[in-house]
Amino acid sequence: VQVNEEIPVKHLPPTEPDPHVVRVGWSLDSCSTQLGEEPFSYGYGGTAKKSTDCKFENYGEPFAENDVIACLLAGDTVELSFLKNGRWLGPAFRLRREDLGGRALFPHVLVKNCAVEFNFGQRDVPFVTVPPGFTFLQHLPLAGHEDMGTGTRGHGTLGPKSKAEYEILMMVGLPAAGKTTWALKHAAANPGKKYNVLGTNAIMDKMRVRG
What we know:
GO terms for molecular function: RNA binding. One of its GO terms (cellular component) is nucleus. Its main location: nucleus. It holds the Pfam family AAA_33. This is HNRL1 protein. The protein is mainly β. It has two domains: about 1-140, SPRY domain (Jelly Rolls); about 165-205, no CATH class. It contains three helices and ten strands, in the order E-E-E-E-E-E-E-E-H-E-E-H-H. The strands form three sheets. It has a five-stranded antiparallel β-sheet with strand order 5-4-3-2-9, with no helix packed on it. It has a three-stranded antiparallel β-sheet with strand order 6-7-8, with no helix packed on it. Strands 1-10 form a two-stranded antiparallel ribbon. It is globular, with a radius of gyration of 19 Å. The mean pLDDT is about 90.
């Protein structure tokens, strides 16, 4: 991932603590868009923090506009590490392959007011040189979900093909009537639809995330 531009944010107050954010890493297909804020979601951000399950720890160095971050995944023990401008920053996460239960990790990026560019192997000239023993994701053989193995790649959830396939449910009712409870149960019962539950509870939960 190359951070091409930190987009001007003159409309934001000068007290805005983090006007520009880029966090890169890996997540399961079932994870939310908030990289590094739930189990099996692993991110490294420009504030020199790594995170998983909302646990933020110091890692690497800060990065910003014009920097290139490479996300590396290796080994049967599944070691996740990162390069900054071609320099290895050391292991960030280690997890057991059996804990993944045969599920694949997918590239994931969280961006706020930044323009970024990806290279999965489609560029003739890469942003940085790939370390020995690694290969770009796009160059790995394609496998089905039922036979995902080491050194293969698979498809994630396909997005809607048209606006007609999008679905929005609006809950209407008095406070404490059970709207959020119903919505959370409905989302859990329909994981394939990947609902994003919006509401006061979600906002309050994110306000408690330090990092």
